[in-house]
Amino acid sequence: MTRRAMKIFLIFGILLAAVFSGPVAWARDTPQRIEITAKRFTFDPGEITLKKGQPVVLVIKSVDVAHGLRVRELNIDVKIKAGGTAEVEFTPQAAGDFIGHCSVFCGSGHGSMSLKFHVVN
Ligand SMILES: [Cu+2]
């Protein structure tokens, strides 16, 4: 085999390795993104199941007024502007059920605006 052929072979091999390892690395390193819609007086979805130790990004979009989401046990405290989107990244450290509440007064049903997290092992 000539040097030139070996070089081409090597480059091809590296490219192949990059292509095949790419999606795997991506799946492992990129946190799961969960989109949530906030509107008076619900979060949709209203229940989310997460895996302990697996990083997650909540992408919360408000379609009306300003809202917030606070989950004490998960260390989440985020505010969403009226019509805006907010992101919060976290990794659940313990299994269990945790209730998040809207943290920005948004009207008469504000007190019952909640989101349930199931964290499983
Ligand atoms: Cu509220």
Give me the number of helical elements.
1
Largest beta sheet: strand ordering? 2-1-4-7
* Number of separate domains: 2
DSSP summary, beta strand count: 9
> What small molecules does this complex bind?
copper (II) ion
Unreliable stretches, pLDDT < 50, 5 or more residues? Answer: none
> Looking at CATH, which topology of the largest domain would you report?
Immunoglobulin-like
In round numbers, the mean pLDDT is: 88
- Proportion in β-strands: 35-45%
The CATH level-2 architecture of the largest domain is identified as: Sandwich
Relative helix content? 10-25%
Element pattern in H and E: HEEEEEEEEE
User: What is the overall shape?
Assistant: elongated
Q: Radius of gyration, Cα only, in angstroms? A: 21 Å
The CATH class of the largest domain is Mainly Beta
Euclidean distance between termini CA atoms: 53 Å
Secondary structure blueprint with pairings:
Blueprint: H1 3-29, E1 32-39, E2 42-44, E3 47-51, E4 56-62, E5 67-71, E6 76-80, E7 85-90, E8 96-101, E9 114-120
Parallel strand pairs: 1-4, 3-9
Antiparallel strand pairs: 1-2, 4-7, 5-6, 8-9
The structure holds copper (II) ion.
Pick out its properties.
Immunoglobulin-like, 9 strands, 121 residues, 43% strand, 22% helix, binds copper (II) ion, 2 domains, 3-stranded mixed beta sheet, 4-stranded mixed beta sheet
Question: Concise description?
Answer:
With 121 residues, the protein is an alpha/beta fold. It is built from 1 helix and 9 strands, in the order H-E-E-E-E-E-E-E-E-E.
